[in-house]
Amino acid sequence: MTAGLGEAGGIARSGQAYAVNGQRPESNNYLLDGASNVDSVNGGYALRTPVDAVNEFRILTLNAPAEYGDTSGATTSVVTKSGSNYLHGDVYDFFRNDAMDARNFFAAETEPLHRNQYGATVGGPIRKDKDFFFLYYEGSAIRRVRRRPLSCPPPRSGRETSPDSPTPPPAARSLINEFTGQPFPGNQIAPYMQSPIALLAEKLYPLRISAPTY
Fold first, then answer.
1. How far apart are CA 111 and CA 107, in angstroms?
2. I need a surface site. Which of 58, 100, 107, 115 has the fewest CB within 10 A?
3. Are the C-beta atoms of residues 111 and 101 closer than 8 Å to each other?
4. Handedness of CA 37, 43, 46, 49 (dihedral sign)
5. 168-213 per-position pLDDT tens digit
6. 0.70 exceeded by pTM
7. How many whole angstroms separate alpha carbon 96 and alpha carbon 144?
């Protein structure tokens, strides 16, 4: 998303637009069957047309006819399919799940994901050789679980581990006094070296935070 879209509050099409001839994505024009299809808030197209409903499209970048003016970027013109003297259509479902996904490094197992992008198109005659109809529909359903790493607060009272921890801190994690280069006695920072503001702030945290289980 460019600065212009950010200032306009455009987030719905973030990362889906493109820049042409050095212009920002919001400088592009979008047409659907000859009618304007521009989302002036988010930048880009307003109505997304399913692939199975598209008959043809053109992207005009240079020396476009006058009928495609109005913007300094490119013009994307999409023409949908139409009906015919014969009833026709299709049904589709693009499915994705976590069976082939890699495990998140911070997760114990692969995060659940089930995504369906489904739809249907149908076209046919109203009056043979005179009037026709064409309809399309597309929907999506996403069921997923996202996990985030947990950031724990700093240890209490200048200790590397909590006071009631049964396991002493390893030697590799000894607290070193940067002024002397020597470990702090008892692996605890001297009280006079601790920030009084930090000591007050740590009281807002619980003494222990258990790691989340998934």
1. 8
2. 100
3. yes
4. positive
5. 444 457 788 888 888 888 888 888 888 888 888 877 776 554 444 4
6. no
7. 11
